[in-house]
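Researcher: If only I could read C-alpha cells as easily as an amino acid sequence. Walk me, if you will, through where the backbone shape changes along the chain. I have put the entry right below:
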Amino acid sequence: MRSRLLILGLSALLVAAAGFVGCGKSETQILRLATTTSTADSGLLDAIVPAFEKKFGARVDIVAVGTGQAIELGKAGDADVILVHSRSREDAFVAEGHGTARYDVMYNDYIIVGPAADPAGVAGMSTAAEALVAIAAGEATFASRGDDSGTHSKEKSLWQATGVDPEAGFAWYKSLGQGMGDTLRFADETGAYTLTDRGTYLAQRGSLPNLEVMVGGASIAENADPALFNPYGVIPVNPDKGGINADLAQKFADWLTSLEIQQQIETFGSEAFGQALFFPDSEAWRNR
C-alpha cells in the first residue's frame, strides 16, 4: 500500500511538473512579422531580432516577401506588424485603418546594376531616368522583380517618369515575379540590368561576379538622384482585426526605433562591406 501511495505521489508530481512546463511554453509569445526580402536578404533581421526575442521572451515568425504582399498580410490580419518600404502604400495602409501608426525606421537607396560590358552605356549617369531611357533605346536586357514589392513599385514609377512602358511586350524586359536575391542572380547570369536596394546588392555582391553599380555610385553619399531614396517604416496592425498581438507589435515598433537598436542599424554591414547597409532614421535617432 505504501509503495502504491509513493507511486501515486510521484505520478502527481510528474503531472504537476508537466503542467508547469507546458504553462511555461504557453508563455512564449509569438510575433508575426511581415517584411520585405531586403531586410532578410541583407542579413539585418538575423543580426538584430534575436535580441528582441531574448528581451521580451518572444519568438518572431518572419515572413519575408515583397512589400505589396506584406501589406496584404497585414490587411488580412495574418501579421501583427509589418516592416516595409513603399511610403505611399504605407500611408494608405494606416489611413484606411489597417495599421495603428507608421514609424520611421531607416533608409538606404536604390541603385541600378548591370554587366561590366555595359551595352547600354549607362555607367556613371546621374539619374535613373536617363539610364532607363538608354537601356530601352539600346534594347538591353532589363530584369524586373515583377512581384508588387516596394522595389518593383519604385521601378514602375521610374519608368513612368521616362514615358517608356516596358511592359508593352518588349522582349528585352524580363518580369520575373521573384525576390531581390533571385532577381540579382538572374541579372548576373544573363547580363541584364536591374534596380536593387543597395543593401541587398552589397550583402550578396560576393556571389554576383558579373554585376557592377552603374547608377548610384559607390555609396549613398555619391547617389545624386533623390528619386532613388528608399525609406523604411514599421506599422503595428490594427488589433480590431482580431487575433493580433497588439501589445507585442507595439513593443517591437518601439524597440526597433529606440536609440539602442538604431545604433546597431547604423553600424550593420560596415565591417563586412566597408559601409553600412542601412541608415537609422527614427524620431528618437533624429532627436538624439
